[in-house]
Design a protein that fits this description.
The protein contains 7 helices and 23 strands. The protein has about 475 residues and is α+β, with helices and mostly antiparallel strands. Among the domains are: about 100 residues, Beta Barrel (conserved putative lor/sdh protein from methanococcus maripaludis s2 fold); about 90 residues, Helix hairpin bin (Helix Hairpins, Orthogonal Bundle). It has a 6-stranded antiparallel beta barrel. A 4-stranded antiparallel beta sheet has the order 3-10-8-5, with no helix packed on it. β20 and β21 form a beta hairpin. The chain starts with a helix and ends in a 15-residue tail after the last strand.
Length: about 475
């Protein structure tokens, strides 16, 4: 009986020892996993180094490629197209024939005008003869009147006939001038039936065909027959938001990306900034105010338009290898994106954009001070013991400041800063930092809302679940 009791006691001791070993091992594993025992290290944060680097502010906008010089050609007179010696894409020189409109009606008008001029000149000659005749008669009557051979009334009648003849001659002269002017007008209309190139360039668009009837621009908007452009100098027109256009200046450099040439960038320069806005969705919540900005393409392009390369009508062999990154051939209407470099600061103190936040200084709650949490709890206990109700929060004006959080010996320290220009990743800091600090850049919720001045923090070396470890920017 005694042996049985001793065996049971031994078994109980063994079970207790096994349970103790399991408990110690489990506790050690949980501590290694960080389930407990690390609370004193504070909130996990990501840090980076404050750097000195060049920073450039950019304005990004989208638009379409177009020639710097493009002329829309419309006829001045209506009629049927009887000659169209050009095709879209052809190179033409200044003064070369582009279109000829049927001139029959205008030739008839010129002939009628010529006949009218001859008729008015004949009338002028007749009126001149009448004037000379009345002048001779007036002199004869004047001599007779001086000799008192005729009455005064007869002399006055001679004077009147002379004045009438003189007025008729002047009217005939004006009629000749009017007929000649009308003839010049008819001749100009006849000349306008043939349209010549106003400059050398490329036919970038042709919207009419041979035999088509067109409307002139004399009394209404005429038919746009074609466009003549200088494709050897292209530009891209983009819409810049009203908040960004104030930062853009003439001659600012730019980087251009054309959708038709992925992976390539082209240099550009700002040549024109519109003074008037282009508003879309006016009067609605989707109203957008943009300003057109033109950027000239500085890199070589469109060799065909410049006169080099294969001539029109030649067929290039597609199997023949070409050099890498050949000269691009931009066409009007291609879409692209532009980064305009508006301002550059050299060797500026910069931090990642996500490190900068705005805090209300009136709600600032420093941690880690002399009283600490125990002092706050003691104050709360004293108020509760006295039985007094806490006072209502006083209303106050917001005191918003731009701040960053520095990492200083496992502690977050709030620093007010003045920021400058920024790019896609970094922002310049004018005052508040010296450039040799470590700054807290994440997580976003901590930086923007929860992290307080003096809070205990620890560097998250692993970057969190599913994220790669964060590397400081050196």
């Amino acid at each position: 009986m005694a042996k049985k009791k001793k065996s049971n006691a031994t078994r109980i001791l063994v079970i207790i020892a096994v349970l103790f070993v399991v408990f110690v091992a489990t506790a050690f594993g949980l501590q290694k996993a960080g389930v407990f025992g690390n609370q004193e290290k504070g909130e996990a944060v990501e840090v980076a180094d404050v750097e000195f680097r060049n920073i450039t502010q950019t304005v990004t906008a989208s638009g379409r490629v177009q020639p710097e010089v493009e002329v829309k050609i419309s006829p001045d007179v209506p009629g049927e197209i009887i000659a169209l010696p050009i095709r879209e894409g052809d190179q033409v020189n200044k003064g070369e024939l582009l279109v000829r409109i049927r001139p029959d009606n205008y030739l008839a008008q010129v002939e009628r005008g010529q006949a009218s001029v001859l008729q008015s000149k004949a009338v002028l000659a007749q009126r001149k003869a009448d004037l000379l005749n009345s002048e001779i008669e007036l002199k004869r009557e004047e001599d007779l009147f001086k000799k008192q051979a005729i009455s005064e009334s007869q002399y006055q009648q001679a004077q009147t006939r002379y004045q009438v003849a003189q007025a008729s001659y002047e009217a005939a002269d004006y009629a000749v001038q009017s007929s000649e002017a009308q003839l010049r007008d008819f001749q100009e209309q006849l000349d306008k039936t043939s349209i010549y190139a106003p400059m050398s360039g490329t036919i970038s668009m042709l919207s009419v065909e041979l035999g088509e009837r067109v409307v002139g621009t004399s009394q209404m908007a005429g038919t746009e027959m074609m466009r003549l452009a200088q494709l050897d100098q292209m530009e891209i027109e983009v819409d810049v938001n009203e908040n960004d256009v104030v930062n853009v200046s003439i001659l600012d450099s730019a980087s251009i990306e054309i959708d038709a040439y992925p992976g390539r960038t082209f240099r550009g320069v700002v040549t024109e900034i519109a003074n008037s806005a282009r508003v879309s969705g006016a009067g609605t919540q989707e109203q957008v105010t943009n300003f057109p900005v033109k950027i000239r393409v500085e890199d070589p392009h469109n060799l065909l338009a410049g006169g080099s390369g294969p001539q029109a009508g030649q067929i290039s062999n597609a199997e023949v290898p070409v050099e890498e990154d050949p000269t691009p051939n931009f066409r009007p209407g291609m879409s692209g994106t532009v980064d305009i470099f508006t301002q550059t600061v050299f060797e500026a103190v910069v931090v990642p954009i996500q490190a900068v936040t705005v805090r209300d200084m009136n709600q600032r709650k420093p941690q880690g001070d002399e009283e600490g949490e125990e002092g706050e709890e003691a104050t709360n206990d004293a108020e509760e013991s006295e039985g007094e109700e806490p006072e209502a929060e006083e209303t106050y004006a917001e005191d918003l400041r731009t701040v960053v959080f520095l990492y200083d010996n496992d502690e977050a320290r709030m620093v007010e800063v003045e920021t400058g220009i920024s790019d896609d990743s970094f922002i310049a800091v004018r005052t508040g930092l010296e450039g040799n600090e470590k700054i807290i850049i994440g997580p976003y919720r901590a930086v923007s809302r929860t992290l307080q001045d003096g809070a205990t923090v620890r560097v998250d070396e692993g970057g969190g679940p599913g994220r790669p470890p964060f590397a400081s920017n050196n």
